[in-house]
Amino acid sequence: MSAAPERYERRSADLAEAVRAHPDLIGLVLLGSASDEAVARRDEWSDHDFFALVRPDAGRSVRPDLSWLPDQDALVLTAREGEIGFVAVYDDGHVMEFAVAEPDELAGALVNEATVAVDDEDGTTAALVERGRANAAAGDRIDVGNEARLVLVKLLIGVGRVRRGEVLVGGQFIRGWAVQSLARALRGRFPQRSSDARDRIDALRRFELDFPDWAARIADALALPAEDAARELFAIAREALDDGGPGFPRAAADAVARRLGW
């Protein structure tokens, strides 16, 4: 761990204390490996992921000032990701990724493992977590056919970009979006292989534990040049998902192969 277990726990406690002391913060949700549910999964690379809830109508005034974060003298950087997202890095390499948001701004958030560390008298934070769990459960219902169609589309667009000379953006389609949809399709087609420890938000998290064979092949494919990677991902998709059933878009796969000269 980038920090010893005792330091990790201390930072969790310090976060909770900082939120309680802030006049405009009303809640703290520790997420993922920072939660009590996932203590056994923590290792040297575990970050602190969390939501810091702001009282309604105070988000714009609170977000510019992160001086409430613990261990200010050890912070080496903070950066903003979008309107409500942030990241912080400490001098020992420990990372915090978090949102500072009003409850309504997190209405569509997805929540898997979570611990409510601070809440207000109305239970606003606990209610948000319950909604987030419901959102994640709904998103965990995978439409295999749709994910397979997305794989084909992303590979087709990605290879087209690469052949045009746009290797960077083409690689993003191939190595990013196509792989994400392929992982979701595989989890949906073979749900019995997905363990209870799977991440219901990101299909690629702990994919190696549930699908070591496919994970190894996908990793090997991603080490290839962009178009070669795309062709191997296409082959994996056909091999794993085209089992003769009605769900796989076989005609579309044939059309993609023809268009790309595969």
Give structural notes.
The chain is α+β, with helices and mostly antiparallel strands and 262 residues long. It has two domains: 135 residues, Beta Polymerase, domain 2; 117 residues. The protein is built from nine helices and six strands, in the order αββαββββααααααα. A six-stranded mixed β-sheet has the order 3-4-5-2-1-6, with helices on both faces. β3 and β4 form a beta hairpin. α5 runs parallel beside α8 and α7 runs antiparallel to α8. The radius of gyration is 21 Å and the shape is elongated. The mean pLDDT is 92.
Number of domains: 2
- What percent of the residues sit in helical stretches (DSSP H or I)? 40-55%
CATH architecture of the largest domain: 2-Layer Sandwich
Q: What share of residues are in beta strands? A: 5-15%
Profile the largest sheet: 6 strands, mixed
CATH class of the largest domain: Alpha Beta
The SS-based structural class is alpha+beta
Spatial strand arrangement across the major sheet: 3-4-5-2-1-6
What Rg, in angstroms, do the CA atoms define? Answer: 21 Å
User: What's the CATH topology label of the largest domain?
Assistant: Beta Polymerase, domain 2
CATH superfamily of the largest domain: Beta Polymerase, domain 2
- The count of β-strands is 6
Shape field: elongated
- What is the distance, rounded to the nearest whole angstrom, between the alpha carbons of the first and last residues? 45 Å
Return the average pLDDT rounded to an integer.
92
Series of H and E elements: HEEHEEEEHHHHHHH
Low-confidence stretches: none
Number of helices: 9
